[in-house]
Amino acid sequence: MRLTTKKITLMAMLTALLVTMQYVLAPFPNIKPLTAILMLLVLFLGRTEAVVVSILTILLNGLLNGFGIWILGQIIGYVVILYLFSWLSRLSQSTLIQSIFVTLLPFLYGLINTIFMLGLFGHQTFIALWLAGLPFDGVHALSTLCFFILLKPIFQKLPFFQGNSIQ
């Protein structure tokens, strides 16, 4: 990752946009463009840059909303799914195939977050926590898919992503 002033500025603005969107869409649980935008950043800006934006977004949200063990789960969850998406999207550049990955990876993110909640609730409650979270993971997956499909053509046309795409 070669950091230029342009790239640092873009990453900072994307972080601010993502944090703001979290607040604007707060009334709608798990219906957020965050995961879709981060996956699009993997495609059009780079995996490392997407991971940095995800970590900054999570930490800034933590500063505004409070920290807890879930922050570590969120960071690790996003790092894992962004690295997996980067690898999987190199196997197929088809939007249809990438949409399948985009739909499945939020379930892995939810599982990773549930694992980190074991520190709060204990291992005896793991299955109950995971099963109770599946509907939220499903909404997260569906909203990620919708935002991915809606935003990918826009990202393809944005001038500051030209020449950075892995496609």
Automatic annotation (TrEMBL):
DNA repair in keyword set: no
Keywords: Membrane, Transmembrane, Transmembrane helix
Name this protein carries in UniProt: ECF transporter S component
Gene3D superfamilies: 1.10.1760.20
Transmembrane segments: 6-25, 37-61, 67-88, 100-121, 127-151
Origin species: Weissella diestrammenae
